[in-house]
């Protein structure tokens, strides 16, 4: 049995007020009254019409306070597993730099997925166009990598005050080839400046890939065919050069040799043998030939320091083709042997005898058995 004590003069029955409807200022203390002898409780007050005497709450409370209170038993509550939420503060409070990196990685991942779907769509519905598209994209990536490498080499040269002829062979050859590639790309950029001219440029690139595109944008078959075409054009000048060399044999005077060398340059024969444009005035042709001859001689010195055995197959074939040998249809060992013979002659020449390198382009290639085709 429970007895409530309150500040109100009238005792309220248990459950008369709920927790929501209890008036303010009314405090209720609920205690358990133990049953036993000596404790007599009067019946509760029944209302206004009752003749019973209302109980004295003070007396009943004093009796309760004299006995020790027994704690109210709490029902057994089954144990519950408590789950703690992970601390998200480290993920919610990110630095601006981390936010930018996460955004960039997200965009890169989405772009890669979209690009893969686009490639699969082209390969399934437009297979021929997909082949050209793949070659073009790979060519752009290779040309961009060449540009970054050339920039790095130039920065190293400027930082350490290094000249071109002091570079290692591979860096020297990379700069030489990159200059030639940039010349073609600049020409395409100039002709695509007018409005809507880029559509015409794409058509010209498709129709004339040998003349307008660099080797990065050629298919494997085109690389072999185009190199054969260039070598055929180079071979057309060989008879003319040999004819003039036969006329020079009886002459022993240095002045006359220089005059005949000038005549060869004026006839534009050596320019065709070196795959240089012959459609220039004679003094420009002589200057270009001298520059080209000096670059090849510097490359030969750097290659002699490196060693022919250190070159890869592609590097060996490119070096032989630059020096006049059509290496596309010759084995690797024969190319290395021929290149070693060229280096022996080139490294033994003095500066006044460098014109012989231009004639070696004809002499060493014409007399080689593998270049009859």
UniProtKB/TrEMBL annotation:
Domain Letm1 RBD: residue ranges: 189-373
Topology in the lipid bilayer: Single-pass membrane protein
TM segment ranges: 129-147, 185-208
Domain of life of the native organism: Eukaryota
Stored InterPro entries: LETM1-like_RBD (IPR033122), LETM1/MDM38-like (IPR044202)
Membrane listed as a keyword: yes
Keyword vocabulary terms for this entry: Membrane, Mitochondrion, Mitochondrion inner membrane, Transmembrane, Transmembrane helix
GO cellular component terms given for this protein: mitochondrial inner membrane
Family annotation (PROSITE patterns): LETM1_RBD (PS51758)
Record localization: Mitochondrion inner membrane
Protein name: LETM1 domain-containing protein 1 isoform X2
